[in-house]
Amino acid sequence: MAKIAEIVANSVRPTFSIELWPPRSPESEAKLELALPLLERLHPTFTSITYGAGGSTRERTHDLVVRIKRMTSIEPMAHLTTAAHKKSELVAILERYRSAGIENILALRGDPPLDSQAGLELGELAHAIDLAKLARSVGDFSIAVAAHPEGHPESTDLNSDRALLASKLEIADLAITQFFFIADSYFQLVEDMDRLGVRKPIIPGVIAPTSLKTLERMANLSGLKIPDAVHERLYRVSDSAESVKSVGVEIAIELSEELLRRGAPGIHVFTMNEASTTVQICEGLGLAR
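Above: the chain's sequence. Below: its structure in token form.
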């Protein structure tokens, strides 16, 4: 049994954690099967497992979380979203995780899929904080929530966004940020939380941008600003997929080095189920165990 909040709090070195996607096709399943052994050799602190929009990967997410818990040395954290769910459904999912010995939940509202222009159906619980409270009532979970260093795209202003995060962290144990590319954005978030009396761990999320097109889609969805320098570095090599991947890994390592040098508690890598780039980031940072 391992609660991620306790692991992070007791770690004597920066943590290195990863995000994985449950497979949606035979091809993506084969990709994940190849990636998992390589990623396990890095001995990540934990792995979070995403949950498809509106519960579209509900069973796949559950199966992957339980499989990782029972068959690997990696501690899993299950993403769960309020969108398109009744409260009773969420209770049933949480009870099922509790029965399977899963102790870690990332409570989210949920976002629409990248490849859709349609909005996401609301659930009976309107916000992630409601789901965090529900998880607290169902079991003795370690609960994480999402943070947005540059503000959530639907927020009216940064101050209200910070106040909402502070409220979530009154319930939750830690936060994991959306990916970003400017270290100052993360440290401003931490400083703002400290000013509001919140001193729980906030783990920065990092991505190696290996596709300019995908990066731009994800940035549009999240409201993220792509710095000109990042865009230009990727655009200069955009005629070569391998070169884009190499530059993307360099960008991720450079940002992670600055974050760790300035006191971030660890790094959470959005792997896109790409083992090779994740291994390069981990080894480049000297965090492989």
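The chain has a mean pLDDT of 93.
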